[in-house]
Amino acid sequence: MSASTKSPYEIIVRPIVTEKTVQGGAQNKYTFEVKKTANKYEIAWALEFIQAEARNPINVVAVNTLVVKGTQRRGRFFKRANQGRTSDWKKAIVTLQEGQTIELVEGV
Predict the structure, then answer these.
(1) Domains in the chain, ordered, with CATH?
(2) Integer Cα distance of 58 and 76 in angstroms
(3) Who contacts 101 (Cβ-Cβ below 8 Å, separation ≥6)?
(4) Would you give the DSSP letter of residue 107?
(5) Sequence-separated contacts (24+) of 17-21 with Cβ below 8 Å
(6) 84-85 and 89-96 as β-strands: parallel, antiparallel, unpaired?
């Protein structure tokens, strides 16, 4: 996979740790919030690069992405005056080879 001009730390924003995503770790699936403009190849490259630096090399088998739409927000007192939205963001579900783990997510 070719390296992009983006830093791997810019592509991977944060791991998403919820009850559902922690259960996915048993099936070698890990969930991350990623930069909205990143594609699947860049996400796989960034994760492999970050884990190689941490001396825990991994092989990404598959990357599934989806865009989570932002929710509508309103003010407390003047409900019509203070309307707005949260930003849309991108989620990536990464599948690793059998027997490989990501330690950052495993410790939770």
Answers:
(1) 8-98 (3.30.70.330)
(2) 47
(3) 25, 28
(4) T
(5) 17/105, 17/108, 21/105
(6) unpaired
Looking only at the bridges linking them, the beta strands covering 29-34 and 89-96 are antiparallel
- Could you tell me if 51 and 69 are in contact, meaning their C-beta atoms sit under 8 angstroms apart? no
pLDDT, one tens digit per residue, over 17-67 is 999 998 888 899 999 999 999 999 999 999 999 999 988 899 999 999 999
> For residue 23, how many other CB atoms are within 10 A of its CB?
10
Burial zone of 40 (CB within 10 Å; 0-12 exposed, 13-18 middle, 19+ buried) = middle
DSSP 3-state of 85? strand
CA pair distance 50, 36, nearest whole angstrom: 19
H helices of 1-108, in order, are 8-11, 19-24, 40-53, 103-106
